[in-house]
Task: structure prediction
Amino acid sequence: AQSVTQLDSQVPVFEEAPVELRCNYSSSVSVYLFWYVQYPNQGLQLLLKYLSGSTLVESINGFEAEFNKSQTSFHLRKPSVHISDTAEYFCAVSRTGTASKLTFGTGTRLQVTL
Amino acid sequence: DGGITQSPKYLFRKEGQNVTLSCEQNLNHDAMYWYRQDPGQGLRLIYYSQIVNDFQKGDIAEGYSVSREKKESFPLTVTSAQKNPTAFYLCASSQGTADEQYFGPGTRLTVT
Result:
């Protein structure tokens, strides 16, 4: 079985500042890793994913995450946040070869202020 | 536009009543899923279906039932046996079980 830990339930940050949202996972087998974003009262949108290959993955809106197998981490980073990045961010893991059974973390609320 | 539709967006029911949540997709995806979201607990898998007329229990299936009679539809029934039904319910689909999931907008169910 897999598990995901998002230690920070809330992360306040000023606009244009950098941010890191932490995600650690536990698994006895190889994994796929995902970051999803959820805006208020909406469904989840896939932000980025790691399946294989390069350990650094990027999204189209400036976020990036790096798969670190030795530290079992998949932290999400952005060098300069915008007000519109305010949302809840979920890290998720699944066993390699299937994304059908995703295990989600409890989420991190990113609050960007002026 | 292809996507996932969940209706209604808000649903109110009295305790002891069964209620069915709708989920429709026009993405031609084979797999569909139902999740429950509670504050501070992330998402938990209720049921999933990899193919028509077949479905499997997720982590918290007790008190819920599903059907998959058509590829594009995967309705979820919240029965009176579900002890804490008030939650935000999310439906998702994927092309196959090795592909990422796409989520619908969700239905917020309130039971009083």
Summary: The radius of gyration of chain B is 13 Å. Residues 18 and 79 of chain B are 4 Å apart (CA to CA).
